[in-house]
Amino acid sequence: MELYTVETLSDRRYELLGAVTGSTVQSKNVFSDLGQNLKNIVGGELKAYTRMMESARETATQRMVDAARNMGADAVLGVRYTTSSIMAQAAEVLVYGTAVRYL
């Protein structure tokens, strides 16, 4: 599956199939939070959270790709990511775009 951040492809003919999304909500466990809180005091990258968000993006992207494949898509255009805090220890990652089929 081809994923593009651009809104259109000038070198390909395609039909629009519709919007596709993928999302996931991730949280860290209490023991991980303790270590990250200590790191937050002294500064630096919160690596456990970085890994968590990378995993969440991969999961959300795969769900969007699966949705596009189910529509018969060859690509997704205008791919965008957004995040939101669900609660103190949880975040949602949402990815969306427009599924297209090449002609």
Report a brief summary of the structure:
The protein is of the alpha+beta class and 103 residues long. It is built from two helices and four strands, in the order ββααββ.
Describe how the helices and strands are arranged.
Layout: E1 2-3, E2 14-27, H1 30-42, H2 47-70, E3 75-87, E4 90-102
Strand percentage lies at 35-45%
Strand order of the largest sheet: 1-3-4-2
Number of helices: 2
Distance between the termini: 15 Å
Largest sheet: 4 strands, mixed
Number of strands: 4
Radius of gyration: 17 Å
Provide mean pLDDT, rounded: 87
Structural class of the helices, strands and pairings? alpha+beta
Shape annotation? elongated
Succession of helices and strands: EEHHEE
- Percent in helix: 25-40%
Low-confidence segments, given as residue ranges, are: none
Please give a structural write-up.
This protein is of the alpha+beta class and 103 residues long. Helix content is 36%, strand content 41%. The protein contains 2 helices and 4 strands; from the N terminus they run ββααββ. Strands 1-3-4-2 form a 4-stranded mixed beta sheet. Strand 3 and strand 4 (90-102) form a beta hairpin. The longest helix is centred in the middle third of the chain and has 24 residues, at 47-70. The mean pLDDT is 87.
